[in-house]
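USER: For my understanding, would you kindly supply a protein sequence with its structure tokens?

ASSISTANT:
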Amino acid sequence: MRRLLPVLFLFPSFLFAQTPEITLTQGLVINKSCRVKPGPYALSGDTADVFFPSTRQPANPLTFRPVVTISGDNLTVDFQTAELRGSGDKALPSEFYGVAILVKGKNITLRNARARGYKIALLAEGAEGLTLENCDFSYNYRPRLRSIREREDFSDWLSYHHNEQDEWLRYGAGIYLKNCVEPIIRGCRITGNQNALLMTGCTGGLVYNNTFHFNSGLGIGLYRSSHNRVMHNRLDWNVRGYSHGFYQRGQDSAGILVYEQSSNNLIAFNSATHSGDGLFLWAGQTTMDTGEGGCNDNWIYGNDFSFAPTNGVEVTFSRNRIQGNYIRDCTYGIWGGYSYESVIFANMIVGCKTAIAIEHGQKDTIKQNIFQDDSTGIYLWARETQPSDWGYAQKRDTRSRDNLIDRNVFLNTRRPLKISASQNIAVNGENLFQGFEKLIETPKPNEKLIFWRNEIYGTNEAIAEVWKDPAIAASKSLNFSYARDPENPYAPLNVAYGELAEPDSLPDGMMAGLMPGFPRGRQFILVDEWGPFDFRRPYPALDTITKDANGRDVYTLTLIGPAGDWQITEMQGVISVSETQGIVPATISIVRDPNSPLVRVEFGYAGPEVVTTVFGEKIPPGQPYKFEFQRFEKKLDWQVKFFNYASDHPPTPDAAITASKPASEMVSSDLAFAWWGIPTEGVDADKFATVSTSEFDIVPGQYVIELTSDDGARLYLDGKRLIDNWDIHEPETDEITVTLGGRHRITIEHFDAGGFATLDFRLRPK
């Protein structure tokens, strides 16, 4: 086992005191142990154009000119909380660029570094024995999110399918490690980024005691990284794609991502709550193409994966052990599609829509778990067909078969079992069912694929209810054996070797539960254009929109955040409010003026705690702080025409799309479409085009137009083309600022070349 404390800790303190103190400068190369003079350093790295060329593909990371390079062997550099500040000419985190610190060499220790305002705060390639300790790489790059309260925008979805050429760099990171051997990352903090720590091609690492939370993408991401330990970390609220009561997509954000042939990792004792997925594991494109490999033999133990919008744990196309985790109030507790020979053991899964869902799983063992207050306990099934472009499905047996459900406890779970299109599923008699409505969903006719042992235990009433179920009543007189003779449920537990094995916690590992002061529950996932709300400032959350007796909109707001005094200082488009001042937390109602499309309420606030703004600025206690609620309700009426086209290529920009008769037409008050198949009757599922037109009046001012498209789109304002993204692409958003006033006409042309398609128009004041 590699050391946990750097050798430097064994040196006498006077030796470290003699280490020289340096001042950071642009392009500095550090090749000796040193200390950095504390203070802020305004130093920018390479421009965004160098970092990400117009091809949208990242350059080789070693071609970047970092602000500071640490290079050599056996070095210790103590920043003494000195902070690099980059992208000084850019105000928004979506515009940040450059690399703050580049590390390469052996046995380098970096302590107490700070860097903010960069695309990548720290980049290390090929480093061996790297230790990062007590560093803070918060408030670096993150994109503006386009999803709104009532609907998501598909350009916000993340994709990690390829990172062979460091494609993940386009997403930015607090720490990016490439091909590093035995790195140690401990006691570090990253918040307000898209991603905290990304590791590609790394082995033997130890990541522990870190706080990577409130990022809009990933807490920790692994790609082709194996034999690492991720332990005792706080990885909460790494999330996007959630609006309570409207959609719960997650958009592939996660507390922990394990991707593309990342195997034999230990992931233990972490808190990864309120994240898109608590843990998201996918075998990788290699496995999907060849049917071989996977993210296998990872041990996922003793973590809290609660309150995920989608899956507490997703483990797919792989073999893993998921043991002793707490998973509460997720859509799916564990999603194990195409998993095989996996062990799901001794987890507690509470209040989920479905506790465990496995499609096409094989030889999985689900045992000694506790299910409580779930809608469905265990759901096993198979689809009739497989996607034709999956090499995995062509080269592997993908039936749902040979799974064992053993000694689980189902308490007040409405439907403990849902099993269909599956073979040789053994549900033994040592499972306990209490408080259910329907024990098992009746299989399809002639689908006798579920086998039971004939011992059932629990209360007399529970036993009687179980035997009433027609799916198992016929087995009451059988003496069925699955692999071994039926067991006496009251006999001492016969535990197989290794069944109760547990990994050791680290001697200096922290208890990584939620930090004090943070609430628990999916209703506290509040995502705006810059990511998840972090409760460090007052925030006006829109709860409901109702109508008053006069038919006017009434907005109910909850003011949450640190306790303090608030008052309304300015209003626009408001007829009345229920309260004009008070103490946070508070609830107020706003009656909207129906003649004003814009509702804006500005609040003044002062409290006894430091306020941290959305961009990481600190407001001292008692100092006034302003925040606002704003909602733009301008509706445009759209005339939408659909056209089919038969060519092998999309319509060219000068093609007369409207030359032919439309295949279909519609009127819509919102141009917000997402099409997975046929968009409307008479229109092909693929190879169709649309022309959408709206004429409207608007008060003078500057406005922002956002247009999300998949595939190509062009936008014309009063006959002038302002957006031209006429090619085949995944969902992308184009944004322009325009000056409007009076009567205007907008025309949008769009085409779909195949697969999923979307078209989403949004207009807001600048």
Q: What stands out?
A: Residues 460-468 form the longest helix (9 residues). The radius of gyration is 28 Å. The CA atoms of residues 219 and 255 lie 5 Å apart. Residues 388-495 form one domain.
